[in-house]
Structure formats: C-alpha cells, structure tokens
Design goal:
Blueprint: H1 4-7, E1 11-14, E2 20-24, E3 28-31, H2 37-45, H3 65-93, H4 101-116, H5 136-140
Antiparallel strand pairs: 1-2, 2-3
Helix pairs in contact: 3-4
Amino acid sequence: MPNFKEVCPMNYQLTKDPATVIRLPDGATVPRHHRFWDEYQQWLASGGVPLLAMMEDAPEAEPEPAIVARSWRNQELAASQWLVDRDRDEQAAGTPLTLSSDQYHELLDYRQDLRDWPSTANFPKDFSKPLAPVWFKTTANGT
C-alpha cells in the first residue's frame, strides 16, 4: 500500500514563523490552523523533509521552470475556454457558428496539446510549448 508521501507528492518550505509553511509547487501559505496543515503533518510523518526558510537578505529564488510553464499553460487554457463554451452554446441554440469546423477542431487539438505538454520529454522548455492556431490570438482578444 502506498504511503501518504506517494499519494500526495507535495513539497513544503519552512518560514520564519514555525506555525506557517509554504506549500510547493503552488506557493500557498499554510498556517497551523488551515485545513492543509494536516496534510503537511501527514507528509512529514511519511518522511517528507521541508526546504529551509529563505534568509531575509538572500536573493529571491527564481520560480521553478515547471511552475512557470504550468502557469502559462493554465492561462492558455483559461484564455481559450470561452471560445469552446461559445461554440457549444451556438451549436445547442442552433445559431450560426462563429468558428469554422476546422477552427473549432484546431482549438480542441491545441487545448489537448496543452494538457499533454507536461508529460512530454522536453517539458518545460519554451521551444516545446504547444503552438496556438494562427487565428487564435486575435480571436482570443475578442477581435
């Protein structure tokens, strides 16, 4: 049976306040009485070792490339969701479709590529980012 650390592959960082930790990779601050504190305690009990607190005069660490890449990916998915919703609404209402069938399928393929990207060999390198359809950026901006 897997232990809690295998089921919940989190990492945490200590802070100067012993009653507060930072949950990685999302950067959430978890104080002692927060609902995620129990998960932190279970993680510790299963052998998890938190990162040490940052020193006040230490330079701020660059975010991990995978965190930055996932953030970009999530923004791209969010920026395209309204197009998917609008097309489905137009189909359901029987009104003329704004996107052509080809555009709609290109959009769905792009969104799937975004979801699959973290599991590719070159993730999180910028050159491996899925490419949006050529028409997407102007449409996503509402033009």
